[in-house]
Amino acid sequence: MGYRTVIDMTGREVKIPVLPQRIISLVPSQTELLFHLGLSTEVIGITKFCIHPLEWYKNKSRMGGTKNLNIRKISALKPDLIIANKEENTKEQIEILATEFPVWVSDIKTIHDAATMINQIGILVNKEEQATTISSRIQNDFANLPSIPKQRVAYLIWKKPWMCAGGDTFINNIIEQMGWVNVFADKMRYPEINLSAIINNNTDRVLLSSEPYPFKERNLQELQTLLPDIKIQLIDGEMFSWYGSHLLLTCNYLQSIV
Fold first, then answer.
1. Which residue segment(s) compose the domain that 194 sits in?
2. Which of 25, 50, 141, 254 has the fewest CB atoms within 10 Å of its CB?
3. Nearest CA to 207 among 244, 236, 233?
4. Are strands 205-209 and 23-25 parallel, antiparallel or unpaired?
Protein backbone atom coordinates (compact mmCIF):
# COMPACT_ATOMS: atom_id res chain seq x y z
CA MET A 1 0.00 0.00 0.00
CA GLY A 2 1.29 3.46 -0.91
CA TYR A 3 1.58 6.24 1.66
CA ARG A 4 1.77 10.02 1.57
CA THR A 5 2.61 12.66 4.17
CA VAL A 6 0.09 15.42 4.89
CA ILE A 7 -0.06 18.31 7.35
CA ASP A 8 -3.13 18.42 9.57
CA MET A 9 -4.82 21.61 10.82
CA THR A 10 -2.66 21.73 13.94
CA GLY A 11 0.56 21.65 11.89
CA ARG A 12 1.39 17.99 12.55
CA GLU A 13 2.86 15.76 9.86
CA VAL A 14 0.76 12.62 9.35
CA LYS A 15 1.70 9.68 7.14
CA ILE A 16 -1.47 8.12 5.74
CA PRO A 17 -2.32 5.51 3.10
CA VAL A 18 -3.05 6.83 -0.37
CA LEU A 19 -6.34 4.92 -0.20
CA PRO A 20 -7.54 4.72 3.43
CA GLN A 21 -9.79 1.69 3.89
CA ARG A 22 -10.27 1.52 7.68
CA ILE A 23 -11.31 4.95 8.97
CA ILE A 24 -12.36 5.84 12.51
CA SER A 25 -14.02 9.20 13.17
CA LEU A 26 -13.83 10.64 16.68
CA VAL A 27 -15.96 13.75 15.97
CA PRO A 28 -19.73 13.77 15.33
CA SER A 29 -19.80 16.56 12.75
CA GLN A 30 -16.91 15.01 10.83
CA THR A 31 -18.58 11.59 10.98
CA GLU A 32 -21.63 13.08 9.27
CA LEU A 33 -19.34 14.60 6.64
CA LEU A 34 -17.79 11.20 5.90
CA PHE A 35 -21.29 9.84 5.38
CA HIS A 36 -22.09 12.58 2.88
CA LEU A 37 -18.82 11.81 1.10
CA GLY A 38 -20.05 8.26 0.56
CA LEU A 39 -17.69 6.35 2.87
CA SER A 40 -20.11 3.83 4.38
CA THR A 41 -17.73 0.91 3.79
CA GLU A 42 -14.50 2.65 4.77
CA VAL A 43 -15.71 4.08 8.11
CA ILE A 44 -15.44 1.27 10.66
CA GLY A 45 -15.77 3.16 13.95
CA ILE A 46 -17.44 6.27 15.41
CA THR A 47 -18.18 7.71 18.87
CA LYS A 48 -21.33 7.31 20.93
CA PHE A 49 -22.13 10.96 20.16
CA CYS A 50 -22.05 10.46 16.38
CA ILE A 51 -25.83 10.46 16.05
CA HIS A 52 -25.98 11.46 12.37
CA PRO A 53 -26.68 9.54 10.24
CA LEU A 54 -28.98 7.33 12.31
CA GLU A 55 -28.07 4.20 10.34
CA TRP A 56 -24.39 4.63 11.26
CA TYR A 57 -25.25 5.35 14.88
CA LYS A 58 -27.20 2.11 15.00
CA ASN A 59 -24.78 -0.09 13.07
CA LYS A 60 -21.20 1.22 13.34
CA SER A 61 -18.89 0.19 16.20
CA ARG A 62 -18.71 2.90 18.87
CA MET A 63 -15.36 3.89 20.32
CA GLY A 64 -16.60 5.58 23.51
CA GLY A 65 -17.15 9.30 23.97
CA THR A 66 -15.23 12.09 22.27
CA LYS A 67 -13.31 12.86 25.48
CA ASN A 68 -13.36 9.34 26.87
CA LEU A 69 -12.23 7.15 23.99
CA ASN A 70 -11.90 3.39 24.27
CA ILE A 71 -8.26 3.17 23.20
CA ARG A 72 -8.20 -0.62 23.40
CA LYS A 73 -11.24 -0.95 21.14
CA ILE A 74 -9.80 1.50 18.62
CA SER A 75 -6.49 -0.38 18.54
CA ALA A 76 -8.25 -3.69 17.99
CA LEU A 77 -9.87 -2.35 14.81
CA LYS A 78 -6.43 -1.43 13.37
CA PRO A 79 -7.52 1.76 11.59
CA ASP A 80 -5.39 3.17 8.79
CA LEU A 81 -6.78 6.70 9.40
CA ILE A 82 -8.24 8.33 12.52
CA ILE A 83 -9.96 11.70 12.13
CA ALA A 84 -10.05 13.83 15.29
CA ASN A 85 -10.46 17.43 16.48
CA LYS A 86 -8.30 19.60 18.72
CA GLU A 87 -11.17 20.82 20.90
CA GLU A 88 -13.52 17.85 20.96
CA ASN A 89 -10.92 15.18 21.72
CA THR A 90 -8.32 15.18 24.49
CA LYS A 91 -4.68 15.81 23.64
CA GLU A 92 -3.44 12.95 25.80
CA GLN A 93 -5.60 10.33 24.10
CA ILE A 94 -4.77 11.63 20.63
CA GLU A 95 -1.05 11.43 21.43
CA ILE A 96 -1.47 7.81 22.55
CA LEU A 97 -3.30 6.86 19.37
CA ALA A 98 -0.78 8.74 17.21
CA THR A 99 2.04 6.49 18.41
CA GLU A 100 0.37 3.58 16.64
CA PHE A 101 -1.93 4.98 13.94
CA PRO A 102 -2.21 7.94 11.54
CA VAL A 103 -4.27 10.60 13.34
CA TRP A 104 -5.38 13.69 11.41
CA VAL A 105 -6.59 16.54 13.67
CA SER A 106 -8.80 19.46 12.68
CA ASP A 107 -8.92 22.85 14.41
CA ILE A 108 -12.10 24.80 13.70
CA LYS A 109 -13.02 28.30 14.85
CA THR A 110 -14.61 29.86 11.75
CA ILE A 111 -16.68 29.04 8.67
CA HIS A 112 -13.46 29.41 6.66
CA ASP A 113 -11.80 26.78 8.88
CA ALA A 114 -14.78 24.48 8.38
CA ALA A 115 -14.55 24.79 4.60
CA THR A 116 -10.81 24.11 4.77
CA MET A 117 -11.44 21.02 6.89
CA ILE A 118 -14.06 19.69 4.50
CA ASN A 119 -11.75 20.15 1.52
CA GLN A 120 -8.76 18.61 3.28
CA ILE A 121 -10.73 15.57 4.43
CA GLY A 122 -11.97 15.22 0.86
CA ILE A 123 -8.37 14.99 -0.28
CA LEU A 124 -7.47 12.53 2.51
CA VAL A 125 -10.24 10.09 1.57
CA ASN A 126 -10.12 10.59 -2.21
CA LYS A 127 -13.46 12.38 -2.39
CA GLU A 128 -12.09 15.78 -3.38
CA GLU A 129 -14.80 16.68 -5.89
CA GLN A 130 -17.65 15.81 -3.52
CA ALA A 131 -16.00 17.74 -0.67
CA THR A 132 -15.48 20.81 -2.84
CA THR A 133 -19.15 20.77 -3.81
CA ILE A 134 -20.18 20.71 -0.13
CA SER A 135 -17.73 23.38 1.04
CA SER A 136 -18.54 25.70 -1.88
CA ARG A 137 -22.25 25.51 -1.20
CA ILE A 138 -21.73 26.22 2.50
CA GLN A 139 -19.54 29.24 1.80
CA ASN A 140 -22.04 30.52 -0.77
CA ASP A 141 -24.94 30.09 1.67
CA PHE A 142 -23.19 32.16 4.32
CA ALA A 143 -22.01 34.78 1.83
CA ASN A 144 -25.65 35.28 0.80
CA LEU A 145 -27.23 35.08 4.25
CA PRO A 146 -29.93 37.79 4.25
CA SER A 147 -29.57 40.73 6.59
CA ILE A 148 -30.90 39.88 10.06
CA PRO A 149 -31.91 42.57 12.61
CA LYS A 150 -28.99 43.07 14.99
CA GLN A 151 -29.24 41.51 18.44
CA ARG A 152 -26.95 41.36 21.46
CA VAL A 153 -27.03 37.72 22.54
CA ALA A 154 -25.70 35.37 25.21
CA TYR A 155 -25.32 31.74 24.11
CA LEU A 156 -25.61 29.39 27.09
CA ILE A 157 -24.30 25.83 26.95
CA TRP A 158 -24.60 24.75 30.61
CA LYS A 159 -26.25 25.44 33.95
CA LYS A 160 -25.06 24.87 37.54
CA PRO A 161 -22.82 26.66 36.80
CA TRP A 162 -24.08 28.82 33.97
CA MET A 163 -21.59 28.65 31.11
CA CYS A 164 -21.56 30.46 27.78
CA ALA A 165 -19.74 30.48 24.44
CA GLY A 166 -16.84 32.93 24.38
CA GLY A 167 -15.30 34.84 21.51
CA ASP A 168 -12.75 32.27 20.29
CA THR A 169 -15.32 29.56 19.52
CA PHE A 170 -16.99 28.35 16.33
CA ILE A 171 -20.34 29.21 17.93
CA ASN A 172 -19.22 32.83 18.22
CA ASN A 173 -18.35 32.89 14.51
CA ILE A 174 -21.84 31.65 13.61
CA ILE A 175 -23.31 34.43 15.76
CA GLU A 176 -21.11 36.93 13.93
CA GLN A 177 -22.17 35.54 10.55
CA MET A 178 -25.74 36.48 11.50
CA GLY A 179 -24.69 40.03 12.19
CA TRP A 180 -25.45 39.53 15.87
CA VAL A 181 -23.15 40.40 18.77
CA ASN A 182 -22.01 37.89 21.39
CA VAL A 183 -22.05 39.87 24.64
CA PHE A 184 -19.35 37.56 26.01
CA ALA A 185 -17.06 37.75 22.98
CA ASP A 186 -14.32 39.23 25.17
CA LYS A 187 -14.11 35.94 27.12
CA MET A 188 -12.27 32.81 26.04
CA ARG A 189 -13.65 29.32 25.38
CA TYR A 190 -16.67 28.47 27.58
CA PRO A 191 -16.46 30.56 30.76
CA GLU A 192 -18.68 30.44 33.81
CA ILE A 193 -20.88 33.52 34.17
CA ASN A 194 -23.42 35.01 36.55
CA LEU A 195 -26.88 35.94 35.34
CA SER A 196 -26.19 39.50 36.47
CA ALA A 197 -23.54 39.71 33.73
CA ILE A 198 -26.23 39.03 31.13
CA ILE A 199 -28.25 41.98 32.41
CA ASN A 200 -25.23 44.26 32.74
CA ASN A 201 -24.18 43.60 29.13
CA ASN A 202 -27.46 44.96 27.72
CA THR A 203 -28.42 41.56 26.34
CA ASP A 204 -31.42 41.43 24.00
CA ARG A 205 -31.69 37.65 23.76
CA VAL A 206 -30.44 34.53 25.55
CA LEU A 207 -29.99 31.43 23.41
CA LEU A 208 -30.36 28.13 25.29
CA SER A 209 -28.53 25.43 23.35
CA SER A 210 -29.75 21.85 23.03
CA GLU A 211 -26.18 20.66 23.64
CA PRO A 212 -24.07 19.85 25.56
CA TYR A 213 -26.64 20.69 28.27
CA PRO A 214 -30.09 19.68 26.97
CA PHE A 215 -32.01 22.85 27.80
CA LYS A 216 -35.78 22.30 27.73
CA GLU A 217 -38.93 24.42 27.98
CA ARG A 218 -38.85 24.25 31.78
CA ASN A 219 -35.37 25.78 31.75
CA LEU A 220 -36.62 28.54 29.47
CA GLN A 221 -39.49 29.32 31.84
CA GLU A 222 -37.18 29.31 34.85
CA LEU A 223 -34.74 31.69 33.20
CA GLN A 224 -37.49 33.92 31.84
CA THR A 225 -38.68 34.45 35.41
CA LEU A 226 -35.16 35.48 36.43
CA LEU A 227 -34.64 37.65 33.35
CA PRO A 228 -38.12 39.04 32.59
CA ASP A 229 -36.94 41.83 30.25
CA ILE A 230 -34.82 39.59 27.98
CA LYS A 231 -36.06 37.24 25.26
CA ILE A 232 -35.16 33.63 26.13
CA GLN A 233 -35.05 31.16 23.24
CA LEU A 234 -34.39 27.43 22.85
CA ILE A 235 -32.17 26.72 19.86
CA ASP A 236 -30.74 23.68 18.07
CA GLY A 237 -27.11 23.54 19.19
CA GLU A 238 -26.11 21.38 16.22
CA MET A 239 -26.85 24.31 13.92
CA PHE A 240 -24.36 26.49 15.77
CA SER A 241 -21.61 24.00 16.56
CA TRP A 242 -21.54 21.17 13.98
CA TYR A 243 -18.93 22.33 11.48
CA GLY A 244 -19.12 19.62 8.84
CA SER A 245 -21.77 18.98 6.19
CA HIS A 246 -24.44 19.84 8.77
CA LEU A 247 -23.69 23.46 7.83
CA LEU A 248 -25.69 22.86 4.66
CA LEU A 249 -28.75 23.22 6.89
CA THR A 250 -27.57 26.07 9.08
CA CYS A 251 -28.37 29.22 7.09
CA ASN A 252 -32.02 28.31 6.60
CA TYR A 253 -32.24 27.53 10.30
CA LEU A 254 -30.65 30.82 11.33
CA GLN A 255 -33.25 32.75 9.35
CA SER A 256 -36.04 30.75 11.02
CA ILE A 257 -35.11 31.70 14.59
CA VAL A 258 -34.93 35.48 14.17
1. 152-256
2. 141
3. 233
4. unpaired
